[in-house]
Design a protein that fits this description.
By secondary structure, this protein is of the alpha+beta class. Helices cover about 40% and strands about 15% of the residues.
C-alpha cells in the first residue's frame, strides 16, 4: 500500500533542501511534488523578453489546440515538470502558474498536475481537491493552501507504507507544525481557505515570514 505525506515549509529554500534530501534518499522525483509561492517574484522561468505563449484565459497553450498544455501533461502522466522541461530531478522541472486564491506559484510534480487537471475540467478548489483526493483531511488541506498563499511551500510525497517512517523523518526536519500554524491563522481572524481572496503581496509575504522567524527566535 502507498501513502501520501504532505508538509508545509515557510519558504522555497527550505522546501527545496527537503526535496533534494528525499531524492538523495532514493525517493523517485516522479513521486514528489512541490508547490511554492512566487508572490515575491523570486522565480523567473524565462529570460527577460522571452514570453510564454498563453491564451486569453491565462492557459499555457504552446501547440494552439485550445487545451492547457499542463492539463495535457497531467492526463498523460507526464506532469508539469515534463511540460516545462523537466530533467534528472524534480527541481529542474519547475514551472510558473497561478492558482485561484493562492496566486502565482512555482510548481512541479504529480500533485500540481492533478490540481491543474481539476481546474481545466471546471472544478473549483484545485489544490484543495488534489490534496483531499490523496487522503489529506479537508481541515489540513485548507491550512496547506493558506500556507502557500501566505508565502510558504508545500511538499507532497507518495511512498510505500513501509517507507513512511523514513520519509517522514526527512520531511519533519524543518516542517511547519500544521496544528500550531492553524491556530496562528485563526487568531488573526482566518477561518478557511478562500479562493476569492486576493493573493498576498510581496510585503505581506515578507511580514508573514518575519513573524514566524520572530516566533522561532523567542
Amino acid at each position: 500500500m502507498r501513502v501520501t505525506i504532505s508538509r508545509l515549509y515557510d519558504d522555497y529554500a527550505t522546501a527545496s533542501r527537503v526535496v533534494n534530501d528525499l531524492e538523495s534518499a532514493g525517493v523517485p522525483h516522479a513521486d514528489i511534488s512541490i508547490v511554492a509561492s512566487n508572490a515575491d517574484n523570486w522565480y523567473s522561468p524565462r529570460p527577460a523578453g522571452a514570453a510564454m505563449p498563453r491564451t486569453t484565459t491565462g492557459r499555457v497553450d504552446r501547440d494552439h489546440d485550445g487545451v492547457d498544455d499542463r492539463a495535457e501533461g497531467a492526463g498523460t502522466g507526464a506532469g508539469i515538470g515534463a511540460v516545462v522541461g523537466g530533467g534528472a530531478g524534480l527541481l529542474t522541472g519547475l514551472g510558473l502558474m497561478a492558482i485561484p486564491g493562492v496566486g502565482p506559484v512555482v510548481a512541479a510534480g504529480w500533485l500540481i498536475s492533478t490540481a491543474v487537471g481539476a481546474l481545466a475540467g471546471g472544478a473549483t478548489g484545485g489544490i484543495i481537491s488534489a490534496l483531499t483526493q490523496t487522503g489529506v483531511s479537508a481541515e489540513d488541506a485548507q491550512v496547506y493552501a493558506e500556507g502557500v498563499r501566505r508565502g510558504g511551500s508545500l511538499v507532497t510525497v507518495r511512498v510505500p507504507d513501509a517507507d513512511r517512517a523514513r520519509v517522514e523523518a526527512i520531511l519533519d526536519r524543518e516542517a511547519v507544525n500544521i496544528a500550531t500554524r492553524r491556530d496562528v491563522y485563526r487568531a488573526s481572524g482566518w477561518s478557511r481557505f478562500d479562493e476569492q481572496a486576493p493573493p498576498f503581496t510581496t510585503d505581506q509575504v515578507r511580514r508573514e515570514r518575519d513573524l514566524y522567524r520572530t516566533r522561532r527566535a523567542s
